Amino acid sequence: MLFVCSSLSGAPLVYPNFNPLQTPPVGEHQLRILSPTLLELTYVSTKKLDGALETWNLDLPEQQALARQLHVKSNHEPIPIATVGFRRRVLYAPLKKYDLRIGNSLFLRLGHELPSDAKVEVTDPSERFWKFGTVFQSDFSPSRWTPVIHVNQVGYAPNLPKHATVGYYLGDMGEMEIPPNQEFHLIDLNSKQVVFRGKLKSRNDLGFPAMWYRNVFEADFTSFETPGCYAVEIPGLGVSYPFWIHPGTPANFARALALGFYHQRCGDANRLPFTRFVHQVCHYKPADIPTPSFENVEKALASNAENTRKDPENQAPVLRSIETCLFPFKQSGKIDVSMGHHDAGDYSKYVINSAQLIHHLVFAADAFPGVSDLDNLGIPESGDGKSDVLQIAKWEADFLAKMQDSDGGFYFLVYPRDRPYEDNVLPDAGDPQIVAPKNTSATAAATAALAQIASSPRFKQQFPEDAARYLEIAKKGWSFLVSAWKRFGRNGSYQRITHYGDFAGDKDEILWAATEMYLATGDPVIHQMLVKEFNPCDPETWLWSWWSLYESYGCAARSYAFADKTGRVATEKLDPGLLEKCRRQIQLRAKDCRADSENSAYGTSVPNEAKRAMRLGWFFSSSTAFDILVAHQLEPSPGYVDAIIHNMDFEAGCNPLNLSYITGLGWYRPHEIVHQYAQNDGRALPPSGLLVGNAQTTFPAMRTYGKDLNALSYPSDDDPRFPYPFYDRWGDTFNVSTEFTIVELSRTLANFAYWMAQSPLKDQPWKSASGKITIDQSQEGPRAHLEAPGMDMSEALIVWESQNQEPVVTQDFAISKKTSWIEVEAQWPDGRRVFAHQDL
Asked: Cα–Cα distance between 693 and 41 in angstroms, integer?
């Protein structure tokens, strides 16, 4: 397999024998020359269902034997082995079927340097470590790809910071030693010329108890702004993945996330030409309003009640059944709750998350310059003269408005009626659904979100009738809350249904609702309540005593801090003390996230508190950087920009694994994600534009593999002396701690949309273009090509996928006789995409 930098206009650099989109099969092996004195032998092994383990298991005595048994030759001349190291981790373990693939890496430090242009071969004459005929050989070419150099595989904007990172984990040998003051080069992949030179700078990680990432370096080429296709080269170490420097890079990110939202859209069909991940209209049938006769609902409520922590301040009875609801259903039968977005990897819809989605996108449209003008993200509504970001929020608001009962309260969620998850169907074949009971947290969150979008100056300008309708619904929701407090008291009104939105009971949602209702109506009584009760600087409002602006508290602080700047109210109508507290805490939160980025060898804002505990999940770099971007609007800072872009780089492949954590972007991409559509659609790659958690503590136990995934790691994640490094802990597996929600998706889209709005492509017209697959016959068999009238194919990255074939990046695609369909997804450096599908 060959893949190239996608430019066809010159002589692009070719990476031999490498398909980064393919999941390496069992038995695949390579020799990687990491440096003139360091080799890596990789081998993919497995453990069979009968328990037979086919993998390298190289403890220290075995490694010492290896140094004596293996033979290394350079141009047929022997080279001694000085030391040996080893690491092992699961590469791939899908949920649906047993297919365990284990990645093994054997590191050989040589007794002296390899000569230039050496042909290197490693053999095992004893056949003790691998079978006869297995060949490990490679050329010591200056232009060979290396896993040691990490870049943003999506690309860099000419006028924004540009960094690559250098470092590599060698298992029990520790970290790879990078020579100090090493020079790096930027290579133009068309001319093959060095166009920029610089020196690597040390970037050690701070905060982990273990001694990790203390030999990591950064290549800074920010000052180079010429658009083109490039790679970073370090003499002796090799070259990185190719990447673009292109003014459309921010648009590439923003359009990918907008496509991700389209893939999450509920109550509608996903269709060509907007995506190849198609399905018919889903979840459009009315949902049931449950009664005590709904056995599965009763069991779910009772089960959640068992997990309810007793809060001494909360006097409300525990919600154990439909009959114990403080707020009985007023409507009966069925109710239309279509539209909105599937909340996460499953198809359910949670009101509190829906409300936060609306907040982040509406806030971005109002507070981030230019975001509300974007009408070219590639969704079906693009090109209609209205804001794409606001229309994504409106799709959610129209769902949220349907979740209101006749008494003004809001149902908590939409969920499958008869089981927890629709884990074996596509969304258009989804289960019958129910709405969960009302509670004050869901009602307050929905009230807040609808009041915010109703009073958004940008939204009112484009959708005045909807704004007026949303405001009336929000007022009715607030009246429900006031009535509940009069009847049960503030401490007697909140009933927990699940853990969603429960970190502060309903306190944070109520204060957010008070914020938005005051900004929308100017009611002084609501304002007085808000000023008296809300202090975002109080650690009581922080998660785990350090994470400020969490969930609805953050929504309230952002809206109040920017209320006059966005034109919602005049400055003199805001309380000066509360305004100052909100703005101060926004800055403090941003400074914490910036410091976390600066203390990370790879620039990601992993919290220092999580490092100390060495536990982290549901972490998304660019979502975290959203908090920095908010503060940047109050007090612009180059340091803020640098931290935001470092987080973006990490998420797009500038990490130790060279992995893109945004599906549909980058060279090396996850296949197995926590997503019901992706688990059931028969494709290898998941839908584009979705997020995958950027860190995980360890592998979970899985019904398919038991505890094998964790047990197979060497060194182990919980090794008391030298545990497996944190940023390197990943395997292409089903791990719920990496599952995204629409909240993270909205924060990330808001972040990327801002940078697109500052770029030259902010006004570039784009909605969609139709693609067509043509098939030619050749002596080798049929080959498929993509045609897209009006599109310049010379800069397109073209990904082909078909039944029973691995996805591949290529211009023309060899069709297997075993396949019944083929698909193609072409992507340009500015994020425009063309899709096509053909049945055979």
From this structure: 29
